[in-house]
Automatic annotation (TrEMBL):
Taxonomic lineage from the root: Bacteria, Bacillati, Bacillota, Bacilli, Bacillales
Gene Ontology MF terms in the entry: cytochrome-c oxidase activity; heme binding
Domain Cytochrome oxidase subunit I profile per the UniProt entry, residue ranges: 16-551
Protein name per Swiss-Prot or TrEMBL: Cytochrome C
Species: Bacillus canaveralius
Family: Belongs to the heme-copper respiratory oxidase family.
Length: 551
């Protein structure tokens, strides 16, 4: 029976669908984590891999499985559960879409994984041409993207149905946020679908023998930057909506939260050139424009920081916290559902500052293609976002499996986050420092082991290996907690926390749900930022970029 009222508990059938996604996500964590440990040890010169396995092969497994598979499956699972919880049980048709999407993504993942393991697709997670993979790798990725569209369609359909049943009312905040992230994802993935289907697949099948490298990189980064906000926004959903409820506080402002999500939709896409600032063939004026737009996409993160500080401070003061920082002590530090994502938020402060350095044109010349950038995304994605995903897991999985997060597991979860932070401080800190000394990314120790300059980098390589090993321990702990919550924890009820806005009389402006306006503006900004430079790239790409022939 169809229900468009918020459920206190996610419907069992929707819960199964969400859990299926989470199972794949955590299998990905196990495989990707192991590959991460292996590659960091190879990179530091501490390990030689047996059976002809190459550094680039394990690096590809690590990047694809953690950056693309874990994230996409976790996000879809979480968003499906969030929509079912806040907008009511999915219809049978919507749930069917969710399952079709899930199986398409799983099949695609298996195809891509087999090709990487056979060393036929050691092309890293960015799969830049002229690195070429087996056609099945590209087909696998295509299925993952198409599957995510089908799963996303279930979320869009649930939103449309809620609006139809509740005319004139703003949609539930979590559903609204899941919808924005789905729209952002669909618009962004058009770029990667275009390069894979029009360029890379025909090239790998031998149907054409050249590939325009600059066009493919540009299409990739049209997708690649919004990809990072597709990862970030589910963490922001938890920070804005779930955390206030967990601490016993309120959402600072519902409208502010919605506005910040809309700004991400508008500004996250037309900024891909900031990954290509050092590339020839793109007019500097257009790079400048996209740098300016990059600074605009920082604004919704600053709004988020402001809103979170306000929620925490108001809650702490209401509990009797005195003085400038007295409120800080009143936060529930013993609750893993809060503390683990909070550590993620803290790490996002230096991580975001690093992003602003990357985006600053001149400073980008210093850090681009150094391991600084790897340090940046281990602090953003692998700390801020991933610790928040772990924090979500601690209540979502028992909620969906009808179990309880016990005191022991809660304690272990906090220990896990502390281990993670220590490991990441070593690893990401050393990456940032070595990057400033010019250490390159995407290269193994053997490729620069003899260079005199490389001697300077060795202590940092060792620190990375130490950090990587500590992080691996963190992964084992996380998998242990996940398995406990999914299969062994005592039966019981765990809450799916959803916060309320502080001011109940706050009227959410309906123009925030005017999708003709927001999608229209999104398309206009994309056309403005990309049309002329893209035509220019196709017509005047520099030698070595246009028509790259592999053999
Ligand atoms: Fe980035 C490269 C610029 C954010 C991920 N980025 C990457 C790559 C990845 C990545 C994966 O402009 C490498 C791609 C590759 O393989 O080549 N990035 C930015 C900017 C931001 C940013 C301006 N990045 C992210 C996020 C990511 C991510 C988020 C993943 C999830 N990035 C770049 C640029 C490059 C780049 C260049 C290309 C570099 C090159 O040359 O190759 C911004 O969105 C960051 C804004 C963030 C803030 C922080 C707000 C803080 C908050 C926390 C508040 C905390 C509280 C706690 C309230 C302004 C919200 C309370 C605290 C108390 C003390 C009580």
């Amino acid at each position: 029976m169809l229900s468009t009222e918020a459920n206190i508990k996610v419907d069992r059938r929707d819960g199964k669908l969400a859990m299926a996604h989470l199972h794949v996500a955590f299998i990905a964590l196990a495989l990707g984590g192991l590959a991460g440990l292996l590659q960091v040890l190879v990179r530091s010169g501490k390990l030689e891999l047996p059976w002809g396995i190459t550094y680039y092969q394990v690096l590809t497994v690590h990047g694809v499985v953690l950056g693309l598979v874990l994230t996409t499956f976790f996000i879809l699972g979480f968003q499906i559960a969030a929509v079912s919880r806040t907008s009511g049980t999915l219809t049978n048709g919507q749930r069917k879409l969710g399952w079709i999407g899930f199986w398409l993504m799983t099949l695609g993942t298996a195809m891509a994984a087999v090709m990487i393991l056979l060393n036929k697709a050691s092309v890293l997670y960015t799969f830049y041409a002229p690195l070429q993979a087996h056609a099945l790798f590209y087909l696998g990725l295509t299925l993952v993207v198409v599957g995510s569209w089908v799963g996303g369609a279930a979320i869009i359909a649930a939103y449309i149905q809620w609006r139809k049943n509740n005319p004139g009312k703003p949609s539930p905040l979590l559903t609204f946020m899941a919808l924005v992230n789905t729209l952002l994802w669909i618009v962004a993935t058009l770029g990667v679908a275009a390069t894979v289907l029009i360029q890379l697949l025909p090239w790998s099948l031998g149907l054409v023998d050249t590939v325009d490298v600059l066009v493919s990189r540009t299409l990739f980064w049209y997708f690649g930057h919004p990809l990072v906000y597709f990862w970030l926004l589910p963490a922001y959903m938890a920070w804005y909506v779930i955390i206030p409820k967990i601490i016993g506080g309120k959402i600072f402002s519902d409208s502010l939260a919605r506005m910040s999500f809309i700004l991400f939709l508008l500004f996250s896409i037309p900024v891909g050139f900031h990954h290509q600032l050092t590339e020839p063939g793109i007019d500097p004026a257009w790079k400048f424009l996209q740098v300016v737009l990059t600074f605009l996409v920082v604004i919704p993160s600053l709004m988020t920081a402001f809103s979170l500080f306000a929620t925490f401070e108001r809650f702490g003061r209401a509990q009797g916290g005195k003085g400038l920082f007295g409120w800080f002590k009143k936060l529930p530090w013993g609750d893993a559902r809060f503390t683990v994502p909070f550590i993620g938020m803290l790490s996002f402060i230096p991580a975001g500052a690093g992003g602003i350095i990357n985006a600053s044109n001149q400073m980008n010349q210093v850090v681009h293609n150094t391991i600084w950038v790897t340090g940046h995304f281990h602090l953003t994605l692998a700390t801020a976002v991933v610790l928040t995903f772990f924090g979500i897991t601690y209540w979502l999985v028992p909620h969906l499996t009808g179990r309880k997060l016990t005191k022991q597991m809660n304690k272990l979860a906090i220990i896990q986050a502390v281990i993670w932070s220590i490991g990441m401080t070593f690893m990401s800190g050393a990456m940032h420092a070595a990057g400033l000394l010019g250490a390159p990314r995407r290269s193994s120790f053997s490729t620069y082991g003899d260079a005199a300059q490389a001697l300077e980098w060795i202590p940092y390589q060792i620190a990375q290996a130490v950090g990587g090993s500590i992080l691996f321990l963190g992964i084992i702990l996380m998998l242990y907690i996940f398995i406990n919550l999914a299969f062994f924890a005592p039966k019981g009820d765990e809450e799916f926390p959803v916060g309320e806005a502080e001011d109940k009389t706050e009227k959410v402006p309906m123009f925030l749900e005017n999708w003709k306006l927001w999608l229209g503006l999104t398309v206009a900004l994309i056309l403005f930022a990309y049309t002329i430079p893209f035509i220019d790239i196709i017509q005047n790409a520099p030698p070595g970029s246009k028509g790259f022939k592999l053999w």
